[in-house]
Specification:
This protein is α/β, with parallel strands linked by helices. Helix content is 39%, strand content 22%. Strand 7 and strand 8 form a beta hairpin. Helix 6 packs across helix 8. The chain starts with a strand and ends in a 6-residue tail after the last strand.
């Protein structure tokens, strides 16, 4: 029976989640404070953590950052009333595995937790390979950074992982579902725009500043590929 740590300060919501998860075959543990939630993550090794962001003492953002910095790989499913694109993307970027906006269906929560439990703990960091160079773009996995004409693109770890995933399959169109599985460890769901949001950010940091080429190409309705294409000359 998978153990699920629920970190939620609203007793009514926490009790509802615990009841439905228990009915779904999970063993829920409920705590109402961020500090206590982090301690439970450290010492009890739950299979999944369901985490609210707005918590007393230690908020959910800091809990995620601290857990990941300490190498804790427990899958984290965020549940929050904060539903902006910025909030969702930022949570995924700093290490959350999934994000549900309140109010949500308890059946969906149970399904998301089940999917997270099946994926299991995040694996240890893979051995870094050699840099990949495509025209003026250099992707260096040892530095976890990309460089355009020798200058750092300032990519976040998640942005780098997406770019590196495309680079490993350069020239081949990688579907959104493949990218979600490889970068975020989950399957594509209806109206999930996570990949598109991160691609836009990569284009701002890489394609826009590259002098001679664009690198992230779209196959409409399918996905993306990394391939150098010469930029069109600017009309004067």
């Amino acid at each position: 029976m998978a153990k699920v740590l629920i970190v939620e300060d609203d007793n009514v919501i926490a009790d509802g989640m615990a009841r439905h998860l228990s009915s779904g075959g999970f063993d829920p543990i409920v705590v109402g404070r961020g500090e206590l939630g982090l301690a439970r993550l450290r010492y009890e090794n739950p299979d999944v953590c369901v985490l609210d962001l707005m918590l007393p003492e230690l908020d959910g953002w800091k809990l995620i950052e601290t857990a990941r910095a300490e190498g804790i790989g427990t899958p984290i499913v965020v549940v929050s009333a904060r539903g902006t694109e910025h909030d969702r993307v930022h949570a995924l970027e700093i290490g959350a595995d999934d994000y549900l906006v309140k109010p949500f269906s308890m059946r969906e929560l149970v399904a998301r937790v089940g999917a997270a439990a099946r994926r299991g703990v995040r694996p240890a960091e893979e051995r870094r390979g050699e840099p990949i160079e495509v025209e003026e773009l250099r992707i260096d996995p040892r530095e976890v950074q990309a460089y355009v004409s020798g200058k750092s693109a300032g990519l976040t770890p998640t942005e780098f992982k997406l770019l590196y995933t495309l680079a490993l399959d350069r020239g081949r169109v990688v579907t959104r579902d493949e990218l979600l599985q490889k970068v975020w460890g989950r399957r594509e769901t209806h109206r999930d725009r996570t990949v598109d949001v991160f691609v836009r950010r990569l284009r701002q940091k890489v394609d826009r500043v590259a002098p001679d080429h664009t690198f992230i190409q779209t196959r409409f309705g399918v996905g993306y590929k990394l391939e150098a294409e010469v930029k069109e000359p600017v009309a004067v």
